[in-house]
Each structure stands twice: as structure tokens, then as C-alpha cells.
Amino acid sequence: LYAEGDPDVEELSLWWTGSYPSGDVEFFTFGTFSDRESDGGGAFFRYPDSDENVRAVYDRGYRPETRGEDQDFSASIGARFPVGDWAVESSFTYGHNEFEFGVDNSLNASLGAASPTSFDSGAYELNQLSINVDVSREFDTPLSAAPLVLALGAEYRDEQFETSQGDAASFAAGAFDGPPGAQAAPGLTPDDEADEDRDVISIYADVGIDLTDALFVNAAARFEDYSDFGSSFTGKLALRLELTNNVALRAAVSNSFRAPNLAQVGFSDTTLNFGDNRTLIRTRTLTVDDPIAQSLGAQSLDEEQSFNLSAGIVAQWENFTFSLDAFSVDVDDRITLSERLFGDSLVAFVQAQPGGADVESVRFFTNAVDTSTEGIEAVITWQAQLGGGDLDVSASYSYAETDIDDLRATTSELTAVDPSLVLVGVEEINTLEDAAPKHKALLTTRWSNDRFDALVRLAYYGSAKRVFNFGGGFEPEQTYGEEVQLDIEAGYQFTDNLSIVVGAANLLDEYPDLSSADINFFGNLPYDILSPIGVNGRYVYSRIRFSL
Q1: pLDDT tens digits for 383-413?
Q2: Among candidates 468, 110, 477, which has minimal Cα distance to 278?
Q3: Model confidence pLDDT, tens digit, residues 315-354
Q4: Cβ 359 vs Cβ 349: under 8 Å
Q5: Confidence of residue 179 (pLDDT cuts 50, 70, 90)
Q6: What pTM, to 2 d.p., does this model score?
Q7: Cβ neighbours of residue 339 under 8 Å, at least 6 residues apart?
Q8: Which of 378, 374, 502, 396 is closest to 458 using CA atoms?
């Protein structure tokens, strides 16, 4: 009754790259375009006598089929040229993405038998324009026999995020009993529409120098001014010390700044999600400046700031290379969604607010947590000539653990509505700390010659824990076991212009552990959606490439 997995997809992708030299100037361009249409996305079956059905329309019930169309375009043009001893590169880049979504084989139960069965539910659009100028040159200095390399740059960036409402029937609240809005894809309402934009001006510098034959130092700094979030200054210092001709140490320290992206500022929608007793309820994601969110204590989003450390060793012996790095990333004011807030008191409070009718659960973005992530990453590679071709073998292992260092107190406004509610609870804490595997390993072998190319990749993912909140103190959890995935691919170059590739992802047709009865939603969701190996099993593909 629920079709878990990917929908049917038709996609057209185009890309180009080119350059044209003219005297001392080299003009260049590159870009991509894609159009993807999907049909049949997963939705739960609506039973004949449920509130979500109208028997006059679907006597035996129905399963909605969501659809979407995503268009993505990016293009860059620029030029490289010398000015005295300086190398100059200037470029202009424009990117556009638009996603329109809807649903078929559905209905708006509140409209009764007059409800349409197909809906256009809305659209999201993101545009970005950037202009860059970068210059670099080398300087002879008395500090080192090798020259100092200096790079300077400036960037202007314009960002826009817009959302458009769905057709009226996709969000209308009619006169009949039953939840309003298109089942499986409630439309964006006029209140959900957003039109956000910002300008960002940046200047940056990078300098690198060999202070001695063994010690290389690199320093970088960047200043950014946001039209909506003020200014920031970030920097990085990196060192590389050669102990021998084969072994070197490296380390880096930096700070970072990330303003909330425009989608986090302006995104709002209404969906169906699970509440008390795992029943479907209307959940609305609110912007932080929405009056309902403000009445629950939502505050304007601040920027994220991080402090980063890394240190490691790299070595090379003949055909072997090896690296081992440890890292630490501390993020303050991390942006995350609040818990899905629901319950009788919350529902009564929200529905008494203007615009809160029929809303049964809400959530909004917050700066409620500080996190620290620590880990290690090791990579070893081996290259050799074998059987008239090149053999490359690489193995990598990574471990990363994220902990919440500070969790902001639940707002007094939310506590006043229901003392049992928390701003960030078990679901969001689980997403940050334990929902993704901490251990990951890859073993990749590739052999190639002038005509033939073959790849075998074995991936290992450690266990992960998932926790859910179904209200009333019912918070089931499950630990999903380790997973292994085998991928293979082989390609043949018939001519300089024509090649063919065949392959299989997840060749052994592995699936994640089955979810327990407590969290599989009455058998509708047999697998967890965050599984690193997916829920589709084996995927076999072929690809033909012809170049002009």
C-alpha cells in the first residue's frame, strides 16, 4: 500500500566547456543544463473510510502519486590575461534552479465530491549571480630561495529565493469534513510565498611561501559584507613540514562564517507527518518571522560560526602514498529545525491564531545548538603497471562523531503553551548525533589501458541509531546494523569519440535492516529512509558517450 523507493524519472542533461585564445587573452566558458521530470513518488494509501477519502470519488480508496519537475542551469564566461607581472582571471557566473511539484490521483477531502484529482502544488526558485576578479603573481623575497606566491580577489554575489503558491484547490479549506489541501502534496498557500534576496561583497587574499626547504606556510583571509547579516572576517593558517624526502607533517587552523541561506530564511510549507498514535497530521514549517512562530518564541536566525583544527601526516614510498589526518570542528549557533511540535494544547493554541486553522503541528528553524565534531581520516593508495595497463588501488577509512555541546533552553512562550514540549528534542538530537554512521571505509580498484577501463568498489558503513517521537512519551529507537555495498563498472573506448560503459551499483542486492514494528508505520515503511545504501537494492545501468 506504500511504494517505497525512487519514482520514474526522465532526465535530459547538457553540458559544455570551451576556450578561445586571442593574443595574450584566453576566453573561456563552461556550463550545465538539466531538466528532470519525476512521477509516482511515494505516498501512503488512503483507505476508503478514512477522513482523507471521499467515497464518491474513490470508492476503494487511493494512493496519491506525487510528481515534480526540476530545471537547473549554470553558465560561466570569463577571460584570463596578464597585466604586467600579474596573472588576471575575471568571470561572470549565473545559476538558476526551479522546482515545480504537484500530485495526481489525489483529492482535497474538504471539497467533497467536487474536488479535483490532480493539483499543481507550487514552485521554488533560486537564482544566483556572481562576478569575480582574481589576480596572482610571484615575488622574490630574502626569506626564501623559492618565490612567495600572492593571490588577491574580489567577488560580488546576488542571491534570490522565491516560492509560488499552488492552485487554489491544492490548499483550500472547503465546507466538508476532512483535512484541507491536496493529499500527499498540500499546496503552498499565499502566506507561504516568499521573495528573499541579498547582496554579498567579498575580498580575499592568499599567500604561500617556502620559509625553508622543509617548511611551507600558507595563509588566507576573507572579508564578506552581507546586505542582511552584516560583515564577517575569516582566516586560515596552514603549515607543511617535510621531515624527510618521503614523510611530511601538515596542520591547519581556521575559522568559518555561514549566514543562513535564503531558503532557511524564507521557506514555509504544509505537509502530512506522523503525530500521536502515528496518525497523519498537518505539519506546517514556519518562517521565523511568522506571527505563529514568534508567539512560540522563534527568533531571527543568526549566522553560524565555526573553529576548525586539523593535523596529519603524509608519506610516499615508490608506488605507495599514505595520509592520516585528525580534525576537530566546533560550530556555534548551528542552524537546525526545531522538533515537530504537536499535542492537544499546542493544536488549540495554534488554531486560535490567525492563519492557524487546521494546522496540527508546527516547526521552524533555530540557532538552538552548539556542536563539536571530531574524527580521523586515513587514505592509502598503490599504483602499478599490470597486464599492459595501469592499476590503481586505494583504501580509505573515516571516523567522525558529532556531539551537542550546548542546547538552548526551550522558550518561555512554548513552555507556557505546554510544559512538556521542547524546542529541540529526541528526533533532532538524534539527527545531529547518531542518525548517520560514524564509521565508513572504501576499497577501490581501477585498471585501465588505452581502450578498456574497469572499476570495483567495496563500501562499508557502520551502525546507526534512529529515534522517533510519537507523542505521549512514546519515543521508540532502533539501531541499524553495519552495511556493505559492492559496485562494479566497465567501459570500452571504441574510437576517440565513442565509448560505452556498463555497471551495477549494489551488485549483491543488499538491503538495510528491517525497521521494527514500533517505527515501520504499520508496515508501510519497512526500511529507514536514511540508510546509506538506500532502499532500492541493485541498480544496473549502461551509458553511451559520443563527443564531437
Answers
A1: 999 988 999 999 999 999 999 999 999 999 9
A2: 468
A3: 999 899 999 999 999 999 999 999 888 888 999 999 999 8
A4: no
A5: confident
A6: 0.86
A7: 363, 421, 422, 423, 424, 425, 426, 427, 428, 469
A8: 396
- The one-letter code for the residue type at 467 is V
Cell numbers for 249, please give them: 607533517
Please name the residue that has the C-alpha cell 513518488: 41
Helix (H) or strand (E) holding 547: none
> What is the rounded radius of gyration, in angstroms, for the C-alpha atoms of the chain?
27
d(Cα 105, Cα 273) in Å, to the nearest integer?
19
39, 8 Cβ separation under 8 angstroms: yes
In terms of Cβ atoms closer than 10 Å to its own Cβ (0-12, 13-18, 19+), residue 422 is: buried
Cα 357 to Cα 15, 137, 283, 351, 404, distances in angstroms: 47, 63, 12, 5, 35
Is residue 376 helix, strand or coil?
strand
CB 443 within 8 A of CB 458: yes
Count CA atoms closer than 13 A to 45's CA, side-chain side: 14
- Taking the alpha carbons of 305, 311, 317, 322 in that order, is the dihedral positive or negative? negative
Task: Please tell me the distance from the alpha carbon of residue 366 to that of residue 360, in angstroms, as a whole number.
Answer: 20
- pLDDT (mean) for 203-221: 95
- Grid coordinates representing 216? 611551507
Torsion of CA 294, 297, 299, 303, to 10 degrees: -140
Gap between the terminal Cα atoms of the chain: 47
Q: Which three cell numbers stand for residue 132?
A: 569575480
Write the burial class of residue 321 (CB in 10 Å: 0-12 exposed, 13-18 middle, 19+ buried).
middle
Provide the 8-state DSSP code for 426.
H
| Burial (Cβ within 10 Å: 0-12, 13-18, ≥19) of residue 344 | exposed
Task: Compute the distance between CA of residue 471 and CA of residue 338 in angstroms, rounded to an integer.
Answer: 15
Strand partners, 81: 88
